[in-house]
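Researcher: Please predict.
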Amino acid sequence: MSTNAAEQTSPMAEFKRAISLVEQTQLEIFSGDPPEAVDAIHDRLEKRLNGVNDENTRLQIMRDVLSDVIEQYNDQYANYISPESLKRYREKRTGSYHGIGLKFRAKPDDYPVVIGALIGGPQENSNLQPGDEIIRAGDTELKAKSSKDIVKLLKGPEGTTVHLLINRDGKRHTVDATRGPVKLEYARSEIISSDIGYLKISRFGGTTHDTVRQQIKSLLQSSVRGIVLDLRDNPGGSTRAARSITSMFIEDEHIYCERYKTGAHRYLKRHGEYLTDLPLAVLVNGNSMSSSEIVAGALQGYERGTIIGEPTYGKGLVQKVFDLAPPLGGAIRTTIAEFATPAGHPIHATGIVPDKFIRTEADFMFRRTGSLNISREARLYQRTLLEQQVRKDHPDNAAKYISAPDKQLQAAIDIIQNSTLSTIESTE
């Protein structure tokens, strides 16, 4: 249930609704103890509220009790989300917010550096370059500031301006950065090895499938002979996006299945259009989680592509966020189901075992997370920063790590090349 923020609901009524939702939906797979009885929770809350008249204090007590109740399930994926945190969660989930659209790297003992302006963002064509140091935002000096604190200064209402003092090669200049709509894109594609499509998905945002659809169509127009789908280090996200992206590669009806607290099962059907039967290789690793495992599990189960890399994380759980009306506000996130492959093979604590196991030395050299809509120049600068960090953290092995080949990607390229070669030979 989602409640319009303009509507006001009795805090106690909303608290009771939240407790009821937890009782009805939260799985008990992480705790051996039975959950606290609803009446006992209400009694405990009443005792804590007794004699407290300040409204803000009463609201915070309710939020604290909600957090305590969910924590009793010992589920790291379930929690109460404060109103402030809910806003950040929604921005990450939808991939959109208002700000200046800048990807940067905070430093614990120095000024943050610009990686690049986001493509399609308000500062895409501004005088900001990879490697620029941001000295001040408005009247606030940014030396040693955390990423979280810097983001707060850069975000703001559309049309407002933040004045940045920039240092570039020892020379300072100012940039008046006007805030506007910012879109975080979690997918990027290119053509590698002359004629193979490469598609990287760093997470499954609410509209990632729309971006992926456009990029696959663009690759097909370029007559690629196969596609490498890179899901390494992808923490998951929208299951709808995962279903849609899987459906672009298969025509089968079911993508995965869910099992609920009641024991009931539901098979989730394909969503969206089918696009291609080209040879497919999928890269995964130990940080490929949740929706990534939905995609990899379905493609493997239907023998649609070759899964390459290391076993995935094994988070076969589905969470749902229930908004709470103000003034209580925020939301509760509960684990509502376990999920499995279309054939019913469980994923939680098991993961997806690749068809071709390959461990890449220094896999951290190939990690790409977060927003991907930055320029090639910005990506090259990201690599420079990574190499600097490796030299600092691994002085004895830095040269070996920096020059390490991406064995998993190369194996995917080889499989697609051999697959298309076999197809050509079989038709001659």
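Model: The first strand starts at residue 79 and ends at 81.
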